Amino acid sequence: MPTFRLERSLSLDGPIAGLDEAGRGPLAGPVVAAAVIVLDHGAMPRRLQRRIDDSKKLAREEREEIFARLHECKTVVIGVGQCSVEEIDTINILRASLLAMRRALDALPIQPLAALVDGNQKPDLPCAVHTVVKGDAKSLSIAAASIVAKVTRDRLMYALADQHPQFGWHHNVGYATAEHRAALQRHGPTPHHRRSFISMPLFLGALQDEPEAV
After folding, report:
1. Interval 160-180: pLDDT, tens
2. Structure pTM?
3. Distance CA 168, CA 164 (A)
4. How far is it, in rounded angstroms, from Cα 9 to Cα 178?
5. Residue ranges per domain, the chain?
6. Is the pLDDT of residue 209 over 50?
7. Residue 123 phi, psi (nearest 5)
8. Which of 8, 41, 79, 131 can pair with 35 through a Cys bridge, CB separation 3.0 to 4.6 Å?
9. Tens of pLDDT, residues 58-103
């Protein structure tokens, strides 16, 4: 379970942000990043701390509830940033993910002294940056950011799903499921699809091989 051990190991007398992103792999929708600062570790409710984990390990209902609790917690500061489909197609998904992280940090109401970033790629941030592989399983701040990013992006995709119900975004939130690929074959892409992704040979082959729905 993630803890504050990494945050405390930096021995900094000031705020430390955890950063993570959601949506690097989908065929559709933006990539969203979140930055989370816990100003006073001791003031964060223990019950909330015990529930925070890598967003991928949590059920949708649990993520939603933790998301709400994080926004209610007075010792938690949150910033969110995103990159659009157009930006992803222009600069590639890795650069877009790092840019979304920079935007999330810039959206914080206070400037952290350092940032713990999930993964092994460093975004260009105006503070010290420490990358942490599988950081959402180690750092509580990163894990909280993973939940905020995931819930924020999922909600964006649910809203888009209301406009384009044929793609199953209420369930797959833009990922390349069989349902999504089959719908792409039948209906073609929307303005919310990443052209740079669906033009890849891997996805073209998947689309051509996908059987018609019965």
Report:
1. 999 999 999 999 999 999 999
2. 0.92
3. 8
4. 44
5. 5-162, 166-209
6. no
7. -75, 160
8. 79
9. 999 999 999 999 999 999 999 999 999 999 999 999 999 999 999 9
Q: How many CA atoms lie within 13 A of 103 on its CB side?
A: 16
Query: Can you spell out the DSSP letters for 158-189?
Result: HHHHHH-GGG-HHHHTT---HHHHHHHHHH--
CA dihedral 77, 161, 99, 11 (to 10 degrees): 30
Q: In angstroms, rounded to a whole number, what is the distance separating the alpha carbons of residues 133 and 112?
A: 20
Which tokens in the block code for residue 137?
A: 């399983």
Instruction: Give residue for tokens 């959402």.
Output: 136
Structure tokens at 9: 């190991």
Eight-state DSSP code of residue 138: T
Per CATH, is 5-162 categorized as 3.30.420.40? no
Strands 128-132 and 114-118, bridge-based pairing:
parallel
Instruction: Report the candidate in 104, 89, 111 with the shortest Cα–Cα distance to residue 29.
Output: 89
Tell me, rounded to whole angstroms, the distance of Cα 105 from its chain centroid. 13
Among residues 134, 145, 138, the alpha carbon closest in space to that of 2 is found at 138
Mean local confidence (pLDDT), 22-46: 97
